[in-house]
């Protein structure tokens, strides 16, 4: 049973790709994921805020008191000459690349143009086979128009593309005014693939302390529908770009659905956190059994067979399905 798939120009032995999360942090777990059959791995993200925070800290300690003694002016070069940023992320990429035989994808997470994007090049130099740029922005300022938010996101992608030669995937959110048009703009700006979708984590309110703080809720099956729908809509319409579906994928059946609507790779995080790295093998075994029973011989044979472009009822992915769903529900 051939489960190989092409993603970002790589031929992966399987379409299951653990996405950026705590389970891809250490080398031992990464090896277990590879042994279980993962086609590639996405390492945890390096965040824009981390780079900027280290830059500010280093700048402070280099400038503090530097004018007190004339000889201190020659102790260190100017801050602009320094390579700022969390070196542990670069070392993680190096070690992962040395230890694994499957593609290693580094992750860079941010939203605004700026010098922090030089770390795209550093991650590539550290050995990353590809880079996943996670464009995460909560556009909360009512004075900032949507056109500006979109233009800045595209500019970030274009900036990163200009800095690296390795394949670039862009992980995006679904909340643009015209999702399909934005997908095309990202590809034209240099994205080799799109990851659908970025999950937006909302804070929670603690009624005891009356404080607002983070609270992580692992995704469940209800999160599947959005990436499934948009993967089906975009398959065959963003020429030359790979599609990866992520969100709520728990088992073999979920992965098969994503492939059938057109995903080149199926990313998993929450279920691996619940069940451990070996769940990749469980998913792949389930996929092989389902395919064998229905006489499919390869993942390529299934891919895109149920996308909107190939579907006998294209309206099922648009407003007609919305109306039918609501009017067809009975108490």
Architecture overview:
This protein has about 325 residues and is α/β, with parallel strands linked by helices. The protein has a single domain, classed as Aldolase class I (TIM Barrel). About 40% of the residues lie in helices and about 15% in strands. It contains twelve helices and twelve strands. It has helices at about 25-35, 50-65, 85-100, 120-125, 145-165, 180-190, 225-235, 250-260, 270-275, 280-295, 300, 320-325, and strands spanning about 5, 10, 15-20, 40-45, 105-110, 130-135, 170, 195, 205, 210-215, 240-245, 265-270. It has an eight-stranded parallel beta sheet with strand order 3-12-11-8-7-6-5-4. β6 (about 130-135), α5 and β7 form a beta-alpha-beta unit. The radius of gyration is 22 Å and the shape is globular. The model is unreliable at about 55-85 (pLDDT under 50).
